[in-house]
Input
Amino acid sequence: MLIFSLTTKSVLDSKSKLMNDTLTKSPKVNLLGLSQKQLGTLLEELGEKPYRVAQVMKWIHHRNIDEFQEMSDVSKKLRDLFDDMAEIREPEVVSEFVSVDGTRKWLMRSESGSLIETVFIPEDDRGTLCVSSQVGCVLDCKFCSTGKQGFNSNLTSAEIIGQVRIARRLLAEVYPERKRAVTNVVLMGMGEPMLNFDNMIAAVDLMMDDLGYGISKRKVTISTAGVVPGINKLIETTDASLAISLHAPNDELRSTLVPINKKYPIAMLLEACKRYAANLGDKRTITVEYTLMHKVNDQPEHAKELSELLKGFPCKINLIPFNPFEGSGFKRPSTMAVKAFKERLVKTGYNVTVRTTRGEDINAACGQLVGVVEDKTRRQEKYKLIATGAA
Ligand code: SAH
Output
């Protein structure tokens, strides 16, 4: 029994190291969210041989088990120990919406009790899963409805990777003819991934790990509103792809749209990205996201300024026509205006794509992901007052 309680203590110590500042009510370690390295450390503490890591990971991530007793090539002693102190727990799927264009959105309950959203966008030759990293967001970008919801908490790494595990399982039934339904993952759902760094990285590691979800590093994209210290930390941590939400060609305008720009202005942001891209080598580029808003940042002079700003910056540009939501105060530019903006950039030598709006009928488009967030910043209340002119 002594060894049992010692082990329990050490597992719980590891758990507190692994959970960071995330809300979690369960006293058990959720093995679903442990990267290969983290699981290795845990198993070593439990006196297990290194080869156990691959066995356990395959059961969890390839064979989708929920019960430890199903791990038939793992000793009974370890299975019983896991039963005692560990768990494999995904977020609970509360509802599924299917768009006329095939886009799917799931509402999932996080441990905080609030609901988060995950979106799957099928295309002929690939399937992109857009996952959430936080419940709500603190950054308050002016054109984003998630931002308007305020912030509640970080997701655990199990909740982040759980979205991938659930989608892969449910989609295997929808697309039996596809070898893999989820070929790409973008951290572009609710939240700012860099502000939940350790949990996000553990989940990203699992996405790219062959013992996890085996998705290529070029097809896992972390998107940030510009949290520069996060990008700097990323350089030492991962080789996943990076996207930045630029949305404006100068600091004056960007600070009004993306308030974090006041802390980390454009020059600082681009500099950090350059270092990230250089460190990856291999001609890797950064994706520059630019949400086009009518008469705000979609004028010919903005295109010109953007093209000058990004000279020599290793990037491709992804234009996102603004997705409207009630009370936003912004409008989507016409298709002609989007095309004209794109052409101006293409003419100056950039690789530019326009993100087609998908899943609009089920509110699954960029910036429309709101879930149901119990806001701890009380921003929603403030926003309602402003939107109704009462403040
Ligand atoms: N916090 C991360 C991920 C957010 S969402 C980030 O900021 O990058 C992914 C993209 O959708 C971001 O570029 C975001 O700025 C953009 N977006 C947010 N609201 C939008 C809206 N209403 N219409 C179009 N794009 C939006």
